[in-house]
Specification:
The protein has helices at about 30-55, 60-70, 85-95; strands at about 10-15, 60, 80, 105-110, 120, 125-130, 135-140, 145-160, 165-170. It has about 170 residues and is α+β, with helices and mostly antiparallel strands. It is elongated, with a radius of gyration of 20 Å. Helix 3 links the parallel strand 3 and strand 4 (about 105-110). The strands form 2 sheets. Strands 2-9-5-3-4 form a 5-stranded mixed beta sheet. Strands 1, 6, 7 and 8 form a 4-stranded antiparallel beta sheet that branches. It contains 3 helices and 9 strands.
Length: about 170
Amino acid sequence: MAGDELSYSSSGWAVSRSAQVANWVLGAQDELDRYGSAVVSIALEAELIRQMADGAPTAADLEAAEIACGQAWPTGASLILCHAADRPKIVRAYAAAQLGPADRPQVLATGGVREPGTAYVIAMGGVRLESSQVEVMSEIDPGHLGVQIGWLRYGVVSRRAAGVAQKVEVA
């Protein structure tokens, strides 16, 4: 957005392959790459969710959060981010109200929501989010007869209007 201040956040993780080379099996490099990518992705996601939710109002329940998001942004609530332990509770609450997936926001359990019992209802049209692909770097480490491998990911998030993100305690 023109005039917006951009403050990118980053996450990184590095490991030395030297201590592991003798015991590696076929496919171990692919497994390490998947692990490194997951670590930096979840860490960045957690930081961006924290930034987006910082100062967000707390709604009494999911319905109140949806209403508040609808008042803040014309398209209304479209996504609920929650801890994996809370997703079944949220889905059951909507099912009890006779609301199926087409009639409610998408409920996404994510590693970025670190605390069980907390969910974020979001009008995604009112949120600006950018994130990079995972970048992998390596450097030969002759001192340890190995290779240093690192993963990096960065991103930025901002709310376009007050009230597009609502915090909800999941009971």
